[in-house]
## 1
Amino acid sequence: NNYLGLSSHPEVIRAAVEALEKFGAGLSSVRFICGTQSIHKDLEEKIARFHQREDAILYASCFDANAGIFEALLTPEDAVLSDELNHASIIDGIRLCKANKYRYKHMDMQDLEAKLQDAQKHRLRLVATDGAFSMDGDIAPLREICQLAQKYDALVFIDECHATGFLGPNGRGTDELLGVMDKVTIINSTLGKALGGAAGGYTTGPKPLIDLLRQRSRPYLFSNSLPPAVVGCASKALDLLMESNAIAQSMAAKTQRFRSKMTAAGFTISGKDHPICPVMLGDARLAAVMAEDMLNRGIYVIGFSYPVVPKGKARIRVQISAVHSDEDIDRCVEAFTEVGRKHGALP
Ligand code: PLP
């Protein structure tokens, strides 16, 4: 998930080394005891600014951010409405809370509306969705979700792990891409993918919500503070993205090149406009042997089959990165074409 190639960016590495030298290997403490240094506060402020939100709170991972938010925010009088294909960490976070739970069909707005109608009897409604779904490379219909949320007085939560840094004109994410930055209330995302790829996660949104999480969110309260080197990487990655949108933008053209050339070659690529490009093959064995042959040609792609994806929907997931050259992408398409013909995936 090194979407922007920032994990090996010289300035990101230098920032990590500087933070390590200045602040040491770690804080040996949770945040509220003695694990908060200026770099943690600066990074939280920077994350909020990047997303144009009021405040942000750091976690050891986005898994933790998702595990900590629903229980802290929702009571048994509330309701949470979750896309059936949401990430495992959202599902686990929801399991931990006592709110009334609704699971709507994947990106199905009719089903979401029916569930929102039923949920009117509850005090507060929260719609939770991945901004971009990593298995299929599809993007949540956030405009429609926000319209429904407005109609039925609900809050919107998005997990932006596969969007932060590169979706939208300035890489702010799915909400920027779809023009609803002012309508999504809560964003959870990771520092472990496009933003330097080290580790860490966060929640960003209204200040009262972040204040509440600092008081109540268990993975924040009871887990060690992010190590300085990790904070240094993420902080520099955000600086680079806020200085210019050139890195974020380079992604879209490359994704388009791969998707259109593969489609022209006869492959079916799931999703739309996302650098996760699942080459749909159906058969689990075919996906495994083709991925192995691709690796033999020097191209590192992974075959996914049941239980990670539904039966009969095996695929090879290709992820395009901003550091791939056009030649890399063309070579990958050529290799897929050769390997596909060899194994009967193409005529
Ligand atoms: N949410 C989504 C959609 C993810 O893809 C991931 C990571 O795979 C996570 C949450 C967890 O992020 P982290 O690796 O920071 O725990």
## 2
Amino acid sequence: MPRAHLTLNPAFTVGPVRRRLFGGFVEHLGRHIYDGIHEPGHPTAGPDGFRRDVVELVKELGVSTVRYPGGNFVSGYNWEDGVGPVAERPSRLDLAWHSTETNQVGLHEFQHWLDLVGSELMLAVNLGTRGPKEAVELLEYTNLPAGTARAAQRAANGREEPFRIAMWCLGNEMDGPWQLGHRDATDYGKLAAMTAKAMRQVDRELELVACGSSGRGMPTFGEWERVVLTHAYDDVDYISCHAYYQEHDGDLASFLASGVDMDAYIESVVATVDHVRTVKRSAKRVDLAFDEWNIWYMSRWQEQARTFSIDEWPVAPRLLEDRYTVADAVVLGGLLISLLNHADRVTSANLAQLVNVIAPIMTEPGGPAWRQTTFFPFSVTSRTARGDALRVLVDADETPTATFGSVPVVAAAATCAGPAISVFLQNRHLTEATTVTIDLRAFQPTGAVSAQGIWDTDVRAANDLRDPHRVGLRNNDTARLSDGLLTVELPPVSWTALTIPQATPSGES
Ligand code: AHR
């Protein structure tokens, strides 16, 4: 049986776990908004048209910041189309997703929905087909208390108080040839700097995210970040990262080790950012906003995109509705482990996306809403990863992968907040349970350990409309604590979260 030995010490920390690490993403795409979060006439919908069953699931998932309104969609979006009397709003072509956008939900409605779910708005501006002028007008509309036509327009549209949006994305995936208004790094870097400067002339307190690469596999990866930051370093607070993973050709072993790729991605972007900082002799630190990450079977979407015709521009079509398995959830748990282990530099992240579109939550029009398998590792980690991320010393057997070579059979992250220690574990072995020993002697752990996670004899099992509760969280009753050493047996292809209370929080007498 494979083995792993972990050592934790409260003095060895990575950094604070910010709530913004558990952000989500809502794009005007497919059935995300319409027939997803917003379905007037649904039995659970309020007078505002928002489904309350979905609101409850989003609250349970525990997303902090929510990025909106895109994604690729934002690069063709006129924010003005989504404000004012709903009946007078125009329908427009959504070129990114070959759909019709009815604009029945816009900024005000979305902020109202965020108030229902208790999350913060992270707004993206269109730097594809528009520029600094429109970004500043939007900011004036959202954040200026009063005294100008835009602020008065907001008040006339029902919102006297400003939205006071703190976090803004300066466009989306501008390195991608598929993006409306795609630019090279020099042009985008100058545009991002110019837009950021103009926005800060309205509101100095903003937190601004420049677009990094849309993936580590992009031909311009690395150089894109360097050039963009050479122009925009002083003007922005974050550079973004995007990563989507999928199983290729049945290679589950490599897929399970996707966190290895995410680790390398983060570490190379940090190196590039810090290189620019060194060259600029800057005292300022730019952090990473991993503002799109998930499992996405992108090849299925590429097939679908080939069938689009000029005669059909559907409203809220079924797009990117991936059905996630137990294996997908275990990979997602591994990606969360990677984010936690880099909590010092990845200070904001957004699971892409939230409802129906590559989502942890699915809905059926007129019917139920349910949790996909990937819901579980996210909700548990968001709820229990608190305080400081700890540096975990991992001494583990290895398991082979075709893509990454030999990798540790167990991936691990840990956090500590006062009396509660949480440990997150992924067993990457395809067929064997792994015994994990965790040295907690630097703490004062009590025996009341809870261990829950996700695994199944059928790693392809999933939840769907016919069987929405097929997969759920399970308790692992193998955890034993003796003399400060905790042992637990992890089933093959599994993700587990341990919560270990301390008698007296370490550091307190
Ligand atoms: O999340 C789906 C799409 O993936 C987003 O619109 C885009 O930013 C990325 O390519």
